[in-house]
Automatic annotation (TrEMBL):
Transmembrane segments: 68-98, 110-130
Swiss-Prot/TrEMBL keywords: Cell membrane, Membrane, Transmembrane, Transmembrane helix
Species assigned in the record: Salmonirosea aquatica
GO cellular component labels: plasma membrane
Homology family: Belongs to the DoxX family.
Listed Pfam families: DoxX
Membrane topology: Multi-pass membrane protein
Cellular localisation: Cell membrane
Superkingdom assignment: Bacteria
UniProt name for this protein: DoxX family membrane protein
InterPro entries hit by this protein: DoxX, DoxX-like_oxidoreductase
First-listed, main subcellular location of the protein, grouped into a coarse class: membrane
Length: 136
């Protein structure tokens, strides 16, 4: 029984399944953050932090683009590496600019997203992605 639990998975191409789960999971959780911001913006609220001096509304629009639209691309595995760049930049800004002077416990959420995004960027979208279907 113990051997069965710790033996390698019998799925075909387990690494691609792992990347799929990571890609869809991280994209979904990030899209929930972006959807909240998108809903607020469409409701007329454009107040937002301006961490890098682009203006509040511009910062909000870029954050929505990153956290919602790029997260959807990530879940689909479409233009995956290109979609990860704004996501990673956003998480680094949140970690080191917005929460830069705060303890690690306040920054770890964004840093965990950043680590996952780097891992996906390095491995690529995997076999089960729109990139593989369209750009094979």
């Amino acid at each position: 029984m113990i051997r069965r639990i710790f033996s390698p998975p019998t799925l075909p191409d387990p690494a691609s399944w792992g990347v799929l789960i990571l890609r869809v999971g991280m994209g979904f959780f990030m899209a929930t953050h972006g959807y909240d911001k998108l809903s607020s913006y469409l409701g007329g609220n454009s107040g937002f932090a301006d961490p890098i001096g682009l203006g509040e509304e511009t910062s909000l629009i870029l954050t929505i683009f990153s956290e919602f639209f790029c997260a959807l691309l990530l879940m689909l595995g479409l233009f995956t590496r290109a979609a990860l760049i704004p996501l990673l930049i956003g998480m680094l800004v949140v970690s080191f600019v917005v929460h830069g002077g705060e303890p690690l416990s306040e920054r770890e959420h964004a840093l965990m997203f950043a680590v996952a995004f780097v891992a996906i960027f390095l491995t690529g979208p995997g076999r089960y992605s729109a990139d593989q279907v369209l750009f094979k």
